[in-house]
Amino acid sequence: MTAVDVSVIVPVYNTMPDLRRCLDSLVNQTIGQDRMEIIAVDDGSTDGSPAELARFAERYPCVKVIRQPNSGGPASPCNHGLRLATGRFVFFVGADDYLGPEALERLVDAADRYGSEVVLGKTVGVNSRFIYQQVFARNEAEISFAGSGLPWSLANIKLFSRDLIERHAIRYFEDMPIGSDFPFTLEACFRASRISVVADYDCYFAVRRLNEQNVTHLSKAADRLYCLRRLMEFTVGLMPAGKDRDAVLSRLFALEVAVLLRDDLLTVERSVQQAVHECVREVADRQLTAETGAELEVETRLRIAVAQAGTVDDLLAVIRQDVEQGIAPIVVEGDRWYAAYPGFRTPGSSLPDEVFEVTAHAAGWAAKLDATQAVWRRNADGATVLAVTARSPLPDLASTATIGVYAEDLTAAVQVTENRPATVVQAEFTVADVVRASALTGQRRSVRVRVQARGQEGSAPLRAAGLRLPRPVIWRRGLRMYAVTPAKDPSGRLMLSVVPMTPGRIMARLTRRR
Q: 475-498 pLDDT, tens per residue?
């Protein structure tokens, strides 16, 4: 029997009703069922997933269903699927997600055309799920880690040569409850002879469950800290020193370490705070350099410096200042800038001045603003806008800097005024523009501030920790309805969320109003 072109591996655990859409998107791929096999590994589901899998397996010969006791994560079912795969290529699909109809055909064609062992297909978010898009700027025959955005897109939703996987015995780490796809994907990309990108077609739709709970990233702190250390050690052990490894480590600091230092660190138990402090200090002392910290936000950079030089209470005091009182004032001494957080020249503090120095990132620090108000209103042209008022503790920002507010590809109308001892920035996003620029499946954008000052250009997320958010606005685009919502991420940063309104959601909304 001739081997199929691609084995699609789907780890399944309690994903109804999204599972049905996922499987429909797979059996209807234009590559044809004779060129693919679908290996669905049911990891002990207790909802309607087993019955749905059985229905598809009975109807479609290309669907194979394997059942196993619950393993607690996707690593075991992915490895189980790999053991059964027979295709020239393998592709992993989350059971919540789905593919564009031509996805597998385009990915396999690209792999054969370029001689690639890994191919990335453009991934888009559904229901405002955030997906990094840098690597999908254009079709690419060959990319590397450095300079391509690849380190920010190391999820396993890629086409892999099965020969590559088997030749190097690449498998998921089943002892990693969080992030087990990162080392698998990293090693496959590192060992691949060529990595290509298909960016001109929406291949993969990553779905954000609207009923998901807003659980702190530190809800399973021991697992997260263990996995972070494993990821750092694995990266250093796999990749030789150089630009590619620095790019991957930079991503780990900017994402995995940064989330440990978000504002919600204040809300967890003391033992968790101490464990986070110890872990951040350990990995920073070992691996943080100018190159591996290149992607760090200026706020995270300072928090890491405090964690390295100070106690857990020093770190918590800095975070508490941002949450309860807003951005710290700047102390200017000649050409040097210092952020005046607790511990900076405080009697009894042992923290040196350089921990708080932000001179090299002055423009990035000047871009740190606190949002104080967000309201819906009509502008002078009669358009509905989200009007955001923000404050900087720097009193002369209006006269010394150029300020812009944006949300990815959307630029707000901005007015800057001095209101000593501070600077006030007013930004307006037109709702029609926000919806028009969003994908049909919805989109979530981070609102950021960009500043040109002191011969530098820097940017920072717009902080909204104490902001009272207005209710969503319902907006029509063609025949579709969308909910446009200003929101905050777990670190109190302002987001613009656009979510499509299905008939069920519209009826539920009307019922709540009644």
A: 998 888 999 999 998 778 999 999
Side-chain half-sphere CA neighbours of 59 within 13 A: 10
The overall average pLDDT reported for the chain is 92
Rounded to two decimals, what is the model's pTM? 0.88
Q: Which residues have C-beta within 8 Å of that of residue 166, sequence separation ≥ 6? A: none
Residue pair 314/293 in contact (Cβ under 8 Å)? The answer is: no
| pLDDT tens readout for residues 146-200 | 989 999 999 999 999 999 999 999 999 999 988 999 999 999 999 999 999 999 9
Tell me the CA distances in angstroms from 45 to 12, 57, 71, 96, 251, one per residue in order. Answer: 7, 16, 11, 14, 34
Tell me what percent of the chain is helix, strand and coil, each rounded to the nearest 5.
Answer: 35, 25, 35
DSSP output for 153-209: --SS-SEEEHHHHHHTT----TT-SS-THHHHHHHHHHH-S-EEEEEEEEEEEEEPP
| Residue that the structure tokens 């291949």 belong to | 203
Residue type, 420: R
Residue 206: beta bridge partners? 125
pLDDT for 508 beyond 80 = no
Q: What is the pLDDT of residues 215-243, one digit of tens each?
A: 455 567 888 999 999 999 999 999 999 99
Distance, in Å, from the CA atom of 301 to the CA atom of 297, rounded to the nearest integer, reads 6
- Measured distance CA(462)–CA(391) in Å, rounded: 10
210 pLDDT tier (thresholds 50, 70, 90): low
| Distance from C-alpha of 236 to C-alpha of 253, rounded to nearest angstrom | 13
CA angle 473, 507, 498 (to 5 degrees): 30
Burial call 364-384: b when 16+ CB within 10 Å, e when fewer: bbbbbbbbeebeeeeeeeeee
